[in-house]
Amino acid sequence: ETAFWGFTRLLEVLGEKYGLEIPNYKEVTNLDNYNQITYPNSFIGSMGRKNGVYYSGVDDFTFIYPKFQTEYAYKAVTKDAKIETYGTFDQALLCMLPFAQDRNKYDVMSDKYAGYLYGNQGIAHIQNKKVKGPKIMLVKDSFMLPLASFLSTVCSDVYLVDTRYYEKSILDYTNSIKNLDYIIVSYTPQDLTEEFFQFQ
């Protein structure tokens, strides 16, 4: 739910400071237009896994996806592994594996963020076939997985780079994409470490 809130705030900032106009703004920012499935006491984020459940507690996780019509193509590459999916938001962008199995909450495979976009990938491209909107690149950590998914409802293209899993030049990758409208670098404070800045 926090990622959805972050998505709505990001749209506000892009509109107020950078003049981005979203024709379907009211539809995509209204949570009533999304399916919501809550998994109680099911989620420990990366900081929780490091600090322990007795210190950080266990969170509920609400899986959110659109009720309105969507059509996507999604491609991702991490080293030699490739993902390519097509269809509606839930068919192309969602992976149910973290929800389908009763894993130990400390197991990285139980990370609910990985339900969006098949988890962290080196580079990924979400193409929204129903929207003529901006092209946005996100240099990101795992928190941006659900936020980027929601952001794709207003963009024609969303490109993602995770510097932990992409060893080539980000500048070259950025320059290979024509007509990018926005580049957003987003890390949670605890991720401002050398691990996230190994790129060329």
Largest sheet descriptor: 6 strands, mixed
Oligomer: single chain
| Count of domains | 1
Order of helices and strands: HHEHHEEEHHEEHEHE
- Rounded average pLDDT: 85
pLDDT < 50 runs, ≥5 residues:
none
Terminus-to-terminus distance: 34 Å
Q: What is the strand content?
A: 25-35%
Q: How many helices?
A: 8
Present the secondary structure layout.
Elements: H1 2-18, H2 25-28, E1 34-43, H3 46-51, H4 53-56, E2 59-66, E3 72-78, E4 81-87, H5 89-93, H6 97-100, E5 123-128, E6 135-140, H7 144-151, E7 157-161, H8 170-175, E8 182-186
Parallel strand pairs: 6-7, 6-8
Antiparallel strand pairs: 1-2, 3-4, 3-5, 5-7
Helix pairs in contact: 1-7
Outline of the structure:
The protein is α/β, with parallel strands linked by helices.
Search tags:
8 strands, two-stranded antiparallel ribbon, alpha/beta, globular, 200 residues, 6-stranded mixed sheet, single chain
Written description of the protein model:
The protein is of the alpha/beta class and 200 residues long. It has one domain. Helices cover 27% and strands 27% of the residues. The strands form 2 sheets. Strands 4-3-5-7-6-8 form a 6-stranded mixed beta sheet. Helix 7 links the parallel strand 6 (135-140) and strand 7 (157-161). The radius of gyration is 16 Å and the shape is globular. The termini are far apart. 28% of the residues are buried. The model has no long low-confidence stretch (mean pLDDT 85).
